[in-house]
Amino acid sequence: MAFTVSRSDCGTKDAEFEAYARLLRQQGVDLGKLPRAPEPGTSRRWLYVWNAREQAQAFADELIKRTRDDSWIVLEVAAPPSEGPLGPIIIQVGMRATGLVFGLHPLSRAMIQSALPHVNGTAKTTISINFETWNDFLTTHGSIETLAREIVPTLTGLTLPELEKLGYALIEDDTNRTLVFVRPGDLIQA
Questions:
Q1: CB of 123 within 8 A of CB of 156?
Q2: Using CA of residue 75, residue 77, residue 81, residue 86, what is the dihedral sign?
Q3: Looking at the structure, do residues 126 and 180 belong to the same domain, yes or no?
Q4: What is the mean predicted confidence (pLDDT) over 155-165?
Q5: Environment class of residue 88 by beta-carbon count within 10 Å: exposed (0-12), middle (13-18) or buried (19+)?
Q6: Which of 71, 43, 52 is closest to 1 using CA atoms?
Q7: Total domain count for the chain?
Q8: Do 10 and 76 reside in the same domain of the chain?
Q9: Which of 88, 165, 181, 186 is the most buried (most CB within 10 A)?
Q10: Residue 90 and residue 108: Cα distance in Å, rounded?
């Protein structure tokens, strides 16, 4: 049997996924090559898989302690786990008075470097888009989704097909609101 940790209230939100990935990394898990299964109930992201319920429960207990949220639970995984990167990639978006700042989350950078070592050193740390008003932004860029398709490859150093395989989420810093979500393509096939 295999087990994963998710939330009891309709799955892990994109901002909560950061705490999940951070704890895995702190426990020495390689985010680019790990046993994983689709998130039960949503198939929105990949989650780490443990072979023993006790190990998964210890992880859930630590997440509860760190996030002060008791919605984390252990779930049995029906299908056998696959090996691959934990995804989707997390892009942080800061809304400023003069525009937007996009940054590749450090955990996602580590995952990309492990899963796709050929992109090491090709990604940027942040990208700023300046505009005077939101209307100026919409006129120039169309939408945040359109802009994401231009910016995320530059931030990550990945091609669009590689990005579509890993998936990505743009999360607003101030509100933790998901602005854009692209489900991992290899998850859709699982």
A1: yes
A2: negative
A3: yes
A4: 90
A5: buried
A6: 52
A7: 2
A8: yes
A9: 88
A10: 6
Same domain, 64 and 98: no
Q: In the numeric block, which tokens belong to residue 127?
A: 């990208």
Examine the domain organization and report whether 117 and 130 are in the same domain: yes
User: In this structure, what token pair is assigned to residue 93?
Assistant: 């978006």
Same domain for 115 and 175, yes or no, is yes
The residues with which 180 forms a beta bridge, in sequence order, are 170
**Mean pLDDT of the chain, nearest integer:** 87
Longest dimension (CA), the chain: 55
Q: Which residue do the tokens 């072979």 mark?
A: 51
Res 139: pLDDT: 79
Last residue of some domain: 55, 84, 113? Answer: 84
Range of the domain at 51: 2-84
Q: Which residue has the higher pLDDT, 52 or 117?
A: 52
Cβ–Cβ under 8 Å, residues 21 and 47: no
Three-state secondary structure call for residue 149: helix
What is the rounded CA–CA span in Å between residue 11 and residue 5?
10
Residue 144 token pair: 């945040």
Give residue 129's identity as a one-letter amino acid code. I
The average pLDDT across 146-173 equals 90
The answer to whether the beta carbons of residues 33 and 84 sit under 8 Å apart is: yes
